[in-house]
Amino acid sequence: MLWFLLGVCTLIAGYFIYGKIIERIFGIKPARPTPAIAQNDGVDFVPMSTKKVYLVQLLNIAGLGPIFGPILGALYGPVALLWIVFGSIFAGAVHDYFSGMLSVRAGGASVPTVVGRELGKGAKHFMNGFAVLLLLLVGVVFTLGPAKLLGNLSGTSVPVWVAIIFGYYMLATIVPIDKIIGRFYPLFGALLVFMSVGLLVGLGFSDKPFYSSGITLENLHPKDLPLWPLLFITIACGALSGFHATQSPLMARCVENESNGRFVFYGAMIGEGIIAMIWATLGMSFYDSPGALQATLASGGPSAVVNEVSTSLLGSVGGILAILGVVVLPITSGDTSFRAARLILADFLNFDQKPIVKRLLIALPMFVVGFMISKMDFNVIWRYFGWANQMTAVMMLWTAAAWLKRHDKFHWVCTIPAVFMTGVVNAYLLSAEIGFNLPLSIAGPIGIVSSVLVLAWLLLRGKHQVPEEEAERLLDNA
What we know:
Layout: H1 2-16, H2 18-26, H3 35-38, H4 50-61, H5 65-73, H6 79-105, H7 111-119, H8 121-154, H9 158-174, H10 181-205, H11 230-234, H12 243-252, H13 261-286, H14 290-349, H15 356-373, H16 378-406, H17 412-431, H18 440-460, H19 470-477
């Protein structure tokens, strides 16, 4: 219990100390009108209270990732907790803050536009396709995951729940953001709190010791899988996740003041880190060994672990509520995933999204593609999602680093995690079965060399002055 509390306290301290440093480096302008004020359209640009924006942001980013990822990461042992804590403070929360605040400065622009402003048109076009693909993968993963949990809970077939969840996603994608997402998320948040706190209290009152294998930094994975790069792909949400870069612009369009950015963007990532700590701790404590956890995963995947842990620690009724709390997380990310994909496509096609007919013109084909992807094997989808997720994070970190360097600010707060994660994603792609399947002894050094080359590019490039976007001029003149 002591080690868990130490990790949580470190995360909270990171928000107040390092988060404040990041805010000062960015340089907020409280008097400057945000997109929610300057471009209020009653659909996507809607001023919302800071508490509500924080809650929506937290539920947007906290999908299955901070549950399934840490459960899988628990196989490596307590060393995974270090990545959750320090990854959240120095990489994930920094990534989320800049993805949100750079969108605020760009008039609420989606991630491809933000990337294009700093890295060029080629990067923008790449991110247009890549971000939409990632969001569709996220939407499908966050449909199949809760559908399986609800199927196990109710006895109703999984395809029925897939249809119901897709129907809700469709509605949440096209209606104004404050009509469904803004109103129902407080209820979802209550379920999330019950799930997080309830399971931790249940563990404390059970006969299960915290961290049954002891506190060790050894790699305990039953299959002896390497920590680098696999751990940093396995635990994405809860440490560092590129998916968040696609979600932050949604709330960048609702933040009422730039001074709220640290609480909304950096703070929500710290909150997700705490959720990841809880589930990693449950995985390492409820089961006697990583081998026992692996056996449950082999029989039913992370969903089986969630079901077994929840019902065992909280009983049938409490377990049902806890499982519903877990179900809420992916659903509250899946709905905004499709919404963010709609907005990215609308920006690319230059479609005004105020008329509902134009929203439907983009949403309907998108859901057809999503349904087709859902027919693929879940494990295959998850592996592609993991790589695509961290690749998006790499692009956003380099974008933030380039922006800081262009404005003569301390860019290393973004450059260092960008260098590290570039090596991770490239080594993973080269060594994984979904990639080139090279030996890690070859893939690892190539990943490191690629990081060094991109770093050299950043340090040697001139102060490339990107023409200001119309959205930023609008904010400046408002």
